[in-house]
Design brief:
The complex is a heterotrimer of chains A (336), B (301) and C (311). Chain A is an alpha/beta fold and 336 residues long. Chain A has eleven helices and 17 strands. In chain A, helix 9 crosses helix 10. With 301 residues, chain B is an all-alpha fold. In chain B, 66% of the residues lie in helices and 1% in strands. With 311 residues, chain C is an alpha/beta fold. Chain C folds into two domains: 223 residues, Rossmann fold (3-Layer(aba) Sandwich), CATH 3.40.50; 82 residues, Lrp/AsnC effector binding domain/regulation of amino acid metabolism (RAM) domain (Alpha-Beta Plaits). Chain C has a six-stranded mixed beta sheet with strand order 5-6-7-3-8-9, sandwiched between helices. In chain C, strands 11-12-10-13 form a four-stranded antiparallel beta sheet, with helices on one face. A three-stranded antiparallel beta sheet of chain C has the order 2-1-4. Chain C is elongated and about 70 Å long. Classes of the chains: A alpha/beta (336), B mainly alpha (301), C alpha/beta (311). Chains A and B meet through strand 1, helix 2, strand 9, helix 3 and helix 4 of A and strand 1, helix 1 and helix 5 of B. Strand 1 of chain A pairs parallel with strand 1 of chain B, so a sheet runs across the interface.
Chain lengths: 336, 301, 311
Amino acid sequence: MFIARPQPPASSLSVAPRSHAGARSCQTGGLVDDGPLLRIEGLTKRYPGATALDDLTVELPRGRIGLVGANGAGKTTTFRLLLGLTHPTDGSVEVCGIDVARDPVGVRSRLGYMPEHDCLPLDQTAADVVSTFGELSGLPARAARQRASDILDLVGLDEARFRPIGGFSTGMRQRTKLAQALVGDPELVLLDEPTAGLDPLGREDMLALVARLGSFGISVLMATHLLDDVQRVCDYVVMIDSGRLVVSGATESLLERTGVVTVDVGPGGNALVTALQQHAMPAVAADGVVEVTIDGDEQLDLVRDVIAELELPLYRLSTRLTSLDEVFLRRAEHTT
Amino acid sequence: MSAVEVRGGAVYDRGYRPYEGRRGRRGAATFALYKASIRRALGIRRSWRQKVAPFLLLGIVTIPAIVNVGIGYVTRNRSLLDRIQIITYRDYVGVSSALLLFVALVAPDVVCPDRRQHVLPLMFARPLTGVDYVAAKVAAIASIVFAFSFLPQVVLFVGNMLVSDSALNYFTGHLDVLWKVPLSVALLALYYAVVGVAVSSLTDRRIVAGATVIGLFLITSIAAGVLVGNNFRFEGGSPAAVINVLALPLYLRDLVFLGHIDPASPLNGVTNGGLLAIATYVAVLLAGMGVLLRRYRWVER
Amino acid sequence: MPDPAFAEEATVEVTDVSVWFGAKVALSELSCSFGPGVTGLLGPNGAGKTTLMRAITGLLGVNQGSVRIEGRDPRRDRGVHSRMSLVPEDEAVSAALTARQFVRYIADLRRITDRNAPDDALRTVGMLDAADRRVDTFSKGMRQRTKVAAALVTNPQVMVLDEPLNGADPLQRLRLIELFKQLGAQGRTVIVSSHILNEVERLAERVIVLVHGRLAAAGGHHAIRDAMNDRPRHVLIRSDDARRLAGALITLESVAGVTFDTARDGLVIQTVQARELATALPRLARDTSSRLIEVRALDDSLESLFRELVR
């Protein structure tokens, strides 16, 4: 006797494991390509009057990648170049080992795309739309219908899938958009501001879904203005400013430990500062918390003991990590 | 109590299943788009309201066939001379206002909503190029127009067969109809599909597109009429007759059925009238395809 | 203690307001007020935030109750509008104008005589360099900033902004947040509606939360959290000897539950007495020689508060 149990919908997000995606390598006509997901070399795109991308060179691994841009249309242009919908002025792009200029159709059959704008036919039902787009991705009709049903389960659209999209809320439309991007079983999905227009709970649900994609072996390239989203979900970050590469690297490596420990003991902060200074630890009170610089993890025990002795309540203790905001600011200010 | 011992239990987590099956490329995608466009035009998988207009028009277009058969049936016992035929096969491969309305209705419906609702980026993020998109849309409309023009012909033929003295004799005596009708209907269907879809691709509003299609046909037909004059039956026609975008395929129809231009048509007496008609036909098709490819090239929007 | 739904020195007073559209009740007997500084207006989609903003700026009449700006009715008293600005979320800016032309146009509409006002406003939002470019060449973020400049040119005392950071890139977001804080510090009443809660945390001292057209919570978000003391708190503790520490912690009365959270690599302690736990923790850790690597309340953020309120 066995029970087939559908996976429960993802709820709380903050547990998104940041390990690299499950081992699904790019399939290239039978040969398995273990190379990087994206290889971009010298990519330049100039329009009359503006340069969208300027000599961009970067190699991106499989996994969940955040694409953050400033000052320019870099992200839209990047997506269009990846989909082979635009030719670069210079340089090349390889997706899963396939040169986009040489075989744009081949690249597109491995991609899924979730645009930012409204793009769904409003008079059809979600089930019909996702199934049709499955067929358009090359799946036989029956398989398309089956997959559409599975994917709609995955994104959490239940009975609503049999209603016309015109009546959907923003959250439901975003889910449907994501579903059509996934129905063709892509190796890489391009997400353009997937949380736009969603309220905080909808945003959490969407980010949880995106995080799960990594565990299915689907790579994600998510373009967003919200560094918070990137920090929560993405293993890798690419930052572009005015068409030039500013930063690219694994999220964890970008968030450095600063050696400063933030301690919140409520109103007794000043007493703590004094006591710590007596133990020769530089400490300062700021914004209602105490910041103490430590030299090695053993000093954490000293901090703990001082607090215990003063019988102060310990509400928070954390090593300050730079946030992506700060990384971005620092690097962006260098280039301006 | 069961005699079978149940051993073991397991829980399966459905999660996400990658797709391991067959996967087509451009051909499959194009065919899928073709089917989806037909479904859209005929209102299949949508509400009943969407189905009313196309099928109502189909009914209207089939009426002459039914009437003809009915009269044939009623007069079947009279002598051949007395039998009344409302409509011949050649006449029936014609342009009725019903057909015109039909094209003006379905052609916009398969391309305008895609543009208006910004669905195109989703389409082109698939193994589908601009050429494929155009081919699928034109083929869809051509197929529908063909079917809707051909069905009444079938009704007419079968009906005539059945009310004639001998069905078999009728059949063998009218073998040429069996290729002339499909060929001329196909020429007609392709033509209207290209023109209808090309005009519709210029706008994202269905009503504007439909009105423009109708307007184009009516205006060119009136202009041609003015240029040709009213006496073309006696004094000969004029090359200006080919300006009539609406009626152009009819000259080709006559070439198929008669082997030459119909003396009663406005092209009568024009030297190389047949060639002129064919050349204009091909030019219109090429112009239409040119417009479409430009609208859906997608690279460098 | 004064009701946190009402601000001290209130400039915008909403009293018992109800608004309905046919059968749909958008606001239901809502009473609150806004004062100088930045107040965040939060709520799920459809909770009534946009309706409230339109009622405050007089674009919409209320079916019941009253709205007063500095004591005056925005529907009746046209004079009030010179003191107020609304930056709606989706209003299109006239595309054929340059940024400067647009801001000047608004200034003229509002009869601002100061010639420098448009440029000052554009400088404040960081759009002075792009002032002579056409708005239809702008990115979404630049359009937003132009709209904010147009709102600033009248030097309003009350500013109502609906998702003003929408479409802005990370740098622009940070700059706009600083700008709004500055405007609040100048004594203006700034009401900002946004879904990005961690930014609202930085930006607003005070929040008003609407759910289904009703007031769900008001005040500083830490204080709101404290007010929800019937709901258990969750505290994450990372230690080098988690199990030993867990054993000690479970003896505390204030601890309602202990969970090992592998994803977060630590203990999650459930408690309804946060203070007692916090006081006992350092002592117990010292006594068991467990190093405390991280201690953090998981539901102290505005996000988790929101989740609790909206559930």
